[in-house]
Amino acid sequence: MKIIIAGAGAVGTHLAKLLSREKQDIILMDDDEEKLSTLSSNFDLMTVTASPSSISGLKEVGIKEADLFIAVTPDESRNMTACMLATNLGAEKTVARIDNYEYLLPKNKEFFQKLGVDSLIYPEMLAAKEIVSSMRMSWVRQWWEFCGGSLILIGTKMREKAEILDVTLAELGAPDIPYHVVAIKRGTETIIPGDDTIKLHDIVYFTTTRKYIPYIRKIAGKEEYADVRNVMIMGGSRIAVRTAQYVPDYMQVKIVDNDINRCNRLTELLDDKTMIINGDGRDMDLLIEEGLKNTEAFVALTGNSETNILACLAAKRMGVSKTVAEVENIDYIGMAESLDIGTVINKKMIAASHIYQMMLDADVSNVKCLTFANADVAEFTVPENAKITKNKVKDLGLPKGTTIGGLIRNGEGVLVTGDTLIQAGDHVVVFCLSMMIKKIEKYFN
């Protein structure tokens, strides 16, 4: 595929690096030569200094041969303009990064497609949804639902009280077991399980159905964790606004920000159930005064990764059971995990995995990046006569580093064994090491 990425900011650069590993034909364009200078020498991609909203610039990068044009500059209107131009100059498919929620409403989808913008992506909204998912259960690091919750993915850290420590997966893999271990993160290593044993401090990813969540909680030794009712957010960013809007009604939210003008703006944007506090979120005395010790979840969303990590560490020390940090510096993600700060949110990785699914030929409704685990999970819909329906799972010869976490058949979540025969129409949830989805795709064509 020929893919043109407009905008060498955080999202564009990360996406270009990811896709260049896949041997795609990648062109990264930006009108700031300095942003591009280090990239082309270190990665298998071409950089072009040109404006994405210029017709001559788009012609220069060969827009008429582009299979996918992705506009991810910080300027929403520029992205929209670039996509409209790209479509009219011959690009096959376009994606624009936006920051206006109204554009995403289903009634507007056809309108934008007529203009030449096929897909819209709002990284801050995707990040907020992920934060809210991770807070639904205080004992869970990552939580995702497939097909409206028919199948659920839970990532949780093994502490001393876990019942499944030092037990081999072979022993856990009895035919009637109500879950499937699909990935293990151990230190810096990600394991797609085979003959492995669960160890202390592993982050274990389970797939299960909703009725067995209490059972997973029990075997993970997390029954004493309090449910999240009170949430404190440090930093009044766009992600914070969306998070406050998405939390369930039973959660009480406080946002702390030191900019009085932003606090006034937050008061206008959010309803009365969200309390806005003007003050320095790094001031522990202020946070304690505002009820930090009675808070079950603390979310750090300032623009500074180091501040967010340190704030979560301090909140943990104060007894907060659930902490979430926005860590935009990818180099810090491993450090954040080693410090055990809880859930890490990186909006460029979330945005990249969302865009990545648009490149796949198979029918993929969901691609998620497991931030800590350097692994991806994808939900495929199985067409008639697909290769994956020809044999039992154990005889399919799936690539090393991949596993099937479960499937949804007629709206019911089903856990998969080696003897399972996958059928046309099934929704199949596949786990694999990062950027291997393309290798699995052929089984679903």
TrEMBL record:
Pfam families, per the entry: TrkA_C, TrkA_N
Acetylation as UniProt keyword: no
Q: Which residues form the RCK C-terminal domain?
A: 141-222, 365-445
**InterPro entries reported in the protein's UniProt record:** K_uptake_TrkA (IPR006036), NAD(P)-bd_dom_sf (IPR036291), RCK_C (IPR006037), RCK_C_sf (IPR036721), RCK_N (IPR003148), Trk_Ktr_HKT_K-transport (IPR050721)
What's in the keyword line of the UniProt record?
Ion transport, NAD, Potassium, Potassium transport, Transport
Query: Would I find Lyase among this entry's keywords?
Result: no
Report domain RCK N-terminal positions: 1-121, 228-345
Query: Which SUPFAM superfamilies does the annotation name?
Result: NAD(P)-binding Rossmann-fold domains, TrkA C-terminal domain-like
Q: Fetch the PANTHER family from UniProt.
A: POTASSIUM CHANNEL PROTEIN 2-RELATED-RELATED, TRK SYSTEM POTASSIUM UPTAKE PROTEIN TRKA
Q: What is this protein called?
A: Trk system potassium uptake protein TrkA
Q: Which organism is it from?
A: Bacteroides hominis
